[in-house]
Amino acid sequence: MKKVISVLMCLLLCFTFSITASAETIPTKTAQPYYEMAFIAESKLSINGTTAICESILRGDPNLIKIVAVQTLEKQGFLWIWDTYDDTEWTNTVYTNTLTMSNTKSGLSSGKYWLKTVFTLTDKLGDTENITVYSDEKKV
Known about the structure:
Order of helices and strands: HEEEEEEEE
Shape: flat
Helix content: 10-25%
Number of strands: 8
Structural class: alpha+beta
Strand content: over 45%
Low-confidence stretches: 17-26
Number of helices: 1
C-alpha cells in the first residue's frame, strides 16, 4: 500500500511540474480585436492644457463603400459613469474605405476623459458592421 501511495504521489508531482513548465512557455501577447471589414480602427485622445484633441482612424477592406464615424468625448462622472461632455459629439461620413477625422474641444473642466468612436461600415454587398473603439483615459 505504501508503494502505491508513493508511486501516485510521484506521478502527481511529475504531472504538476509538467503543467507548470508548459504554462511558463506560452508567449504572452496582447489580444488584438478582430473586425470583419476593418484592418485598423483607432480612437485617440490627447490633452493639451484644457484642450482635447480627438482623432479617429479607420482603414478597411477594399470592398468598403461607406464609413460613418461618430466621435463622442466622454467624462467620468458620479459613480464612475461616463457621460457625453458638453455636447461634444461629431459625425463624419465618407464613401471610401479609409476615414480620418479630428476635432478639438477647449475649456475642459478637471477630471478624466476618453474618446469613444462608433464606426458603421457598409460594403458593396450592403452588409454592415458596427465597431466601437475607446481611447485611453486622460486627465485634466
